Please model this.
Amino acid sequence: MSQTAHIPSHRKPRRSASKLAFRAGVAGGVLSTIAVAGAAAPANAEPVTEKTLEMPTLGSLDADLASAVSASAEASQQEALDQSLAAQENAALQKAAKDAKKAKAEADRKAEAEKAEKARAEARERASRTAARTSLSGTSSFSASDSGSSSSSQVATGSAAAIVAFAKAQIGDAYISGGTGPNSWDCSGLVQAAYAQAGIDLPRISYDQSSLGTSVSLSDLQPGDVLYWGSRSGSYHVAIYVGGGKYVGAQNPSTGVVERDLDWDPPSGAVRIL
Model:
């Protein structure tokens, strides 16, 4: 190729003058239209402003989540507390019902025991009345041979009858040291209570009781006399002579209150207080 050969240019060809003029005219028309529209717009028209949608920030989301978690925890805690209180109330009601049932059973047991004791007391009272009638009818009279005396038969009357009837009514009761009734006695407690039926107040101790009244021979006993074992001023046991050669006394824990013949355990002496 020769040095003078034509080499094509790589630059973009220039637009023609006619195209440039056309584009300039179009642009000028657009600008003119905008200007006319702006002149025709009302003077008090508010400028158009752009509104941007505000999106929640990460911090606000964390706060809302924390608040929701806290509310849920409080609700769970309150529910647990309510359940605990309900369980406690239920347990208290069950315990109250159990205690009431137990108290009723105990009250019923006591009522039955009182009823039985009342029946026994009524039985003793009937026995006492029967013994009194028997004594007054003469079946408790004793002869000279019964008591070892040469005196004629005698019947317990008046105060002696009341003392004898009471003593016999206690036969079968228990012996308890220091007992003064109504269902358990010791020897001097029974004698003291029997004499109280006749309105006579005796000392509580056996040797004080045997120190009262007048000494009488065992061959000259009368119903109501106080028998003693030991010395008169130092007796360790007392009983009541009930006639027919017998006496009633609170002997010991194994026998309780019994009626015995004089020869079963002969007394040391006797005193007459009536």
